[in-house]
Design brief:
It contains 11 helices and 6 strands. By secondary structure, the protein is α/β, with parallel strands linked by helices. It has a 6-stranded parallel β-sheet with strand order 3-2-1-4-5-6. The chain binds magnesium ion.
């Protein structure tokens, strides 16, 4: 019996780096100061895991509804710059998701299984996170961002791109994702998708949302994921 996957594609934010949660409350407070009646929860539900361009389009539309007219270029830019600055001010609070190092050590030892990061982040932000947390030696050149493709998640492009770069068929890939948009993207790429709810931003009904989006299974911690890979590996070894 061979290992069921030839590659594992990791989302970054909310899976490896606990970044989705950083500055969220401050961001919601900032937006409420600009007339948005969004709680932190609303903010997560609307935008978690989305690429910047889609996020900006959604925010712009909502801002237009508040203003009762389309926001002009300058006022929208001011709004979004302030929002980015608000979250950036809390970047020092960002950490790796608990158990990430052990999980990565485990998957690096899986025979014949390649790994990559496939993220909705821009490349500069993504590289910064990968380097800051010492993940570069784990992934090498296989760190792929929204900048590599024309359509962000929930479109399948980033996972198809990463699979191609790894030289693996997308159907032989396992995608690990924390957001419903990301799960949908993995499903659209015809990969197997496992949801992950161990990020700090996950709401109580998050596992259900990931299943609804097409995740085959959902894991609450990296420890559980590490155990599952260990099980798959020992079953494979027992069969050969
Ligand atoms: Mg994510």
């Amino acid at each position: 019996m061979s290992f069921p996957f030839d590659a594992i594609l990791f989302d970054c934010d909310g899976v490896l780096v606990d970044s989705e949660v950083v500055g969220l409350e401050d961001a919601a407070a900032y937006l409420s100061g600009h007339g948005f009646a969004w709680t932190t929860e609303d903010f997560i539900r609307r935008f978690s895991g989305m690429r910047y361009d889609r996020f900006a389009a959604g925010l712009r539309e909502a801002y237009g509804q508040i203003l009762g007219r389309d926001a002009d270029e300058r006022e929208f830019e001011e709004l979004i710059d302030g929002l980015i600055e608000t979250r950036r001010a809390k970047r020092h609070t960002m950490t790796l998701v608990t158990g990430t190092e052990d999980l990565l050590r485990m998957v690096q030892g899986l025979p014949g299984v390649r790994i990559a990061v496939a993220s909705s982040s821009g490349q500069a932000f993504l590289d910064d996170k990968i380097d800051r947390y010492g993940l570069r030696p784990v992934f090498g050149q296989h760190v792929y961002s929204a900048d590599h493709v024309s359509h962000g998640k929930p479109a399948p492009d980033i996972f198809l791109f990463a699979a191609t770069r790894l030289g693996v068929a997308a159907e032989r890939c396992l995608v690990i994702e924390d957001s419903a948009h990301g799960v949908a993207a993995g499903v659209a790429a015809e990969a197997t998708v496992w949801g992950f709810t161990g990020g700090g931003h996950c709401l109580p009904d998050h596992a259900e949302a990931l299943i609804d989006a097409g995740a085959e299974r959902v894991f609450a911690t990296h420890e559980q994921l590490t155990d599952e890979f260990t099980n798959l590996l020992s079953r494979r070894e027992a069969a050969t």
